[in-house]
Specification:
Helix content is 48%, strand content 11%. The protein is α/β, with parallel strands linked by helices and 300 residues long. It has one domain. The strands form 2 sheets. The chain has a 5-stranded parallel beta sheet, with helices on both faces. It has a two-stranded antiparallel ribbon with strand order 5-6. It is globular and about 55 Å long. It starts with a strand and ends in a 5-residue tail after the last helix. 43% of the residues are buried.
Length: 300
C-alpha cells in the first residue's frame, strides 16, 4: 500500500511522514516527486545512489530511468490538474496508464529495499493526489491541514532567514516583495486546499483529513482515524507523537530539516510553533483564507 500525504507546504507533512515511519512495516520516502535525482541526498546524509534504501531504483535492472522520474514530476504539476480531473474514466485510464505503471514499479522496488509493506509519500502535489485517488486502488490519501496563520508565519520566517520563497516549483529571493509573497502564500493555501477537497470526490473512503494541531495535541485519536480506515497498527507512531520514544532513522528525500535530525524526540510545543505575523498581516491573511479557515474549524 501507498499512503500519500497531500496538503500545503509547512503544514506538518514531514513530521507526519517521520511519525508514520515509526510503526512496524511502514517506511517514508519524503517528498519523492521533486527529490528523485541520483545526486539528491537522503536524510541519512548519503546521495541516493549510495544509500541502500534508494540505490536499487537507479540500478539498470530496475527498468526505471531518469526520464521516468522526470515524467512523474512533470505530470504532477498543478497545471495538469484539470487534464486529469475533467476527463471521463475511459480517457483517464488512457492518459494515466504510464504514470500509474511507473509509480507502481517504483513503489514495489522501494518496498523490497526497505522490507516494508506500506510506503509513505509526502510529496503533497495536489495533481499527484488526484491521479492516485482516481487510478490507484492501493493508495490511501491523508490530507493534512494547518492553521494558515501559522503556515504563512512560518513561510515569512523562513524567508527572513534566507530561504527562498517557493511558488509553482520556482524560487524567489526579492526581499522587497515580502508582502507580495505573503499574499501569494495566502491564496496558495486557499486554492491549494480547495483543489484537494475537489479531488476528494474520487477518494471516497480512501481518504482521511487531519489537522496538524490535532495531530500534536491528540495523536492517539488522529492515528486511530487512520487505523480504522486501513486496518494498520500505528502504536509506534502514537508512542513517538506522545514523546515516549526517539524516532528511528528514516531515509527520506527533501522535506524540512527535521527529517535530518538524529535522535529526534517529538516536542509538541516546538512543533506547534508561534504566530509571528503582526496585526495588519494577520488581518490580510484572515480575509483571504476566511472561507476554508472557517470550514476547517479555525474561525475567522
Amino acid at each position: 500500500m501507498l499512503i500519500y500525504i497531500t496538503g500545503r507546504g509547512l503544514s506538518g507533512s514531514t513530521i507526519l511522514d517521520i511519525a508514520l515511519s515509526q510503526s512496524n512495516n511502514v517506511m517514508g520516502m519524503g517528498e519523492f516527486i521533486v527529490g528523485m535525482k541520483q545526486n539528491e541526498k537522503c536524510s541519512c546524509g548519503k546521495q541516493l545512489i549510495e544509500c541502500n534504501k534508494w540505490n536499487k531504483l537507479f540500478n539498470e535492472k530496475s527498468g526505471i530511468g531518469t526520464e521516468d522520474f522526470e515524467y512523474l514530476a512533470n505530470e504532477s504539476k498543478v497545471t495538469n490538474y484539470l487534464k486529469y480531473f475533467m476527463v471521463n474514466d475511459d480517457f483517464f485510464k488512457n492518459i494515466s496508464e504510464k504514470y500509474l505503471r511507473v509509480n507502481s514499479k517504483i513503489i514495489e522496488i522501494k518496498k523490497r529495499s526497505c522490507s516494508a509493506d506500506i510506503i509513505i509519500d509526502s510529496s503533497k502535489e495536489v495533481t499527484r493526489g488526484l491521479i492516485l485517488s482516481r487510478g490507484c486502488s492501493e493508495c490511501f490519501i491523508i490530507h493534512i491541514i494547518r492553521d494558515p496563520l501559522k503556515v504563512i508565519s512560518s513561510t515569512m520566517n523562513h524567508f527572513e532567514k534566507g530561504w527562498p520563497f517557493r511558488f509553482m516549483r520556482k524560487k524567489y529571493y526579492n526581499k522587497k516583495a515580502k508582502s507580495l509573497y505573503m499574499i501569494i502564500s495566502s491564496f496558495a493555501w486557499l486554492f491549494g486546499n480547495l483543489l484537494i477537497e475537489i479531488a476528494g470526490f474520487y477518494s471516497k473512503n480512501k481518504k482521511v483529513k487531519i489537522r496538524y494541531e490535532d495531530l500534536c495535541n491528540f495523536p492517539n485519536h488522529e492515528m486511530e482515524k487512520i487505523e480504522m480506515k486501513i486496518n494498520i497498527d500505528l502504536s509506534g507512531t502514537k508512542a513517538f507523537l506522545n514523546g515516549e520514544k526517539i524516532a528511528k532513522n528514516v531515509h527520506t528525500v527533501r522535506g524540512n530539516p527535521t527529517s535530518k535530525e538524529k535522535k529526534l524526540l517529538f516536542d509538541k510545543n516546538r512543533a506547534l510553533g508561534k504566530n509571528s505575523l503582526n496585526l495588519i498581516q494577520r488581518t490580510i491573511v484572515r480575509i483571504i483564507v476566511a472561507p476554508l479557515r472557517i470550514a476547517y474549524g479555525y474561525g475567522f
